Amino acid sequence: MKFRMVHLLTVGGVLAMTLAPRLAWAQDDTLNSGDTAWMITSSVLVLFMTIPGLSLFYAGLVRAKNVVSVMMQCFAITCMITILWTIYGYGLAFGDGGALNAFVGSGYFFLSGVGVDTVSGSIPESVFQMFQLTFAIITPALMVGAFAERMKFSTMMVFMALWMTVVYAPVAHWVWGGGFLGDRGVMDFAGGTVVHINAGIAALVLCIVLGKRSGYPSTAMPPNSLVLTVVGASMLWVGWFGFNAGSQLAADGVAGMAMAVTHIATATAGFTWMLVEWINRGKPSALGIATGAVAGLVAITPASGFVGPIGALGIGVASAICCYFAAGSLKRALGYDDSLDVFGVHGVGGFVGAVLTGLFAAEMFGGSGLENGIGTQLYLQLEGAVATIVYSGVLTFVIVKILDATMGLRVSPEEESDGLDIALHNERGFTL
Length: 432
Hints:
Elements: E1 8-10, E2 14-16, H1 33-61, H2 67-94, E3 119-120, E4 123-124, H3 125-142, H4 153-176, H5 180-184, H6 192-210, H7 226-245, H8 253-281, H9 286-300, H10 309-334, H11 342-360, H12 373-406, H13 413-418, H14 420-425
Antiparallel strand pairs: 1-2, 3-4
């Protein structure tokens, strides 16, 4: 098989471009059919997480008059991000940025340089970019839950396009594409920082600037269908094996352990959330155990390729407790309306997982080991989390304020009252 190619692109004249990205977990550039089959499967699993998994999870949590709107948002984000990723997103995240490579990549316009014979590690580069595309899709889609039931569809689409371009792609490059956080030694196996902290802090900024739903918190806004939510959470659980185990980019022992600890942490977090809720509220709930499972999935993500079963148990317990109080007590105390607790689950869960990776990756806990010791690694993990929080928070705020001044963020009070399904899409999720 050919090694990574240097592709010559002619547009009006002859422009020579070197398009070889810097990739995490790089292996010898020799195609392996087993690895390829696994990574094709993983890509399908991660896409399955967004549509239908996340769509159904969110659809069940909103009121009946907004079911179609959240599913439409997830579907439309999937389509748009795919187009933008193909045109320039992959290059920003995984291309060689030259003098700016510490911060952002470039090249790969319209996936030029990604051909049938182009190999990335032991898999076709077409498969690698597709796998990474599914991450770029689900990260902005997670934010849908924060502004559910009140944001303009048009503004949402423009926001997501801008956010993927100036926030997601650069942060992905920082960690996985040869940027400064990866070079510093920040450990993020499958996206605790890149995906969950990134989306979680952006969701918090969005819902604060957007304002509360009409009637919140005095008016009860229960989920319209816990059945849909539990089904969606179950799909997320299954799809997450591609998310985490797939991030090894190979079908090997690390991928196998990543799969095992993902399941252990998820089950532990779901069980812990159920117990905490049972103690505090007197009864366990299906919504609680499903939310706890998602919190565990989030928290184990950055650690999945580095920790063993002990670490998975610890991260599962810690994430459930922290996310439970963040989605409840913290939200009530601060008074923001994060409709479906994106920050409380993804932002807080991602932070907990990112930090604890620096602890449980140590050999004494059955992890893969730390080159610089626990103290230094904990500092690096905090550094990566804080850098992402500041960058994502500030840029999100700027984008949102610009769009608020130019397009407006919220639907009208009448449209919000009628529900976004009818007001924005002229459709109903259910015919009653």
